[in-house]
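Write out the 3D structure for:
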Amino acid sequence: MSTLLLALGLVMIIEGLAYALAPSLIERMLEALRALPEAAVRQLGLLIVVSGLILVWFAWQLGASVG
């Protein structure tokens, strides 16, 4: 459970930094996402999920503990 909280905290830090340091870039990215078809946004989301799973697997292979 502590690992999950750590991961969630890190995501929140990174997301918060993006909004704090480059709010105009976030706005442009959101506008670009709105212009994409729903299927493309869904594919992008799946790509991000798979990339995240690969990174977690890679970290686990390097010795990071889960739990």
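The mean pLDDT is 89.
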